[in-house]
Amino acid sequence: MSAGKKVAHTAETAKGKAKEAAGKAVGNERLTAKGKAEQVKGDLSQAGQKAKDAMKH
Asked: What is the pTM of this model?
């Protein structure tokens, strides 16, 4: 996985965690759900990139 993509996927996951925490702190279920969705998206993107890299080697 290229370093740039890894950073982008990790940042997306971290941003999702921050939104989830903020949503829980203020009692906003929509923000909490959006944060969880961003975390899943970032994790899936990382997994996809790792699979692509494994197929190359």
From this structure: 0.79
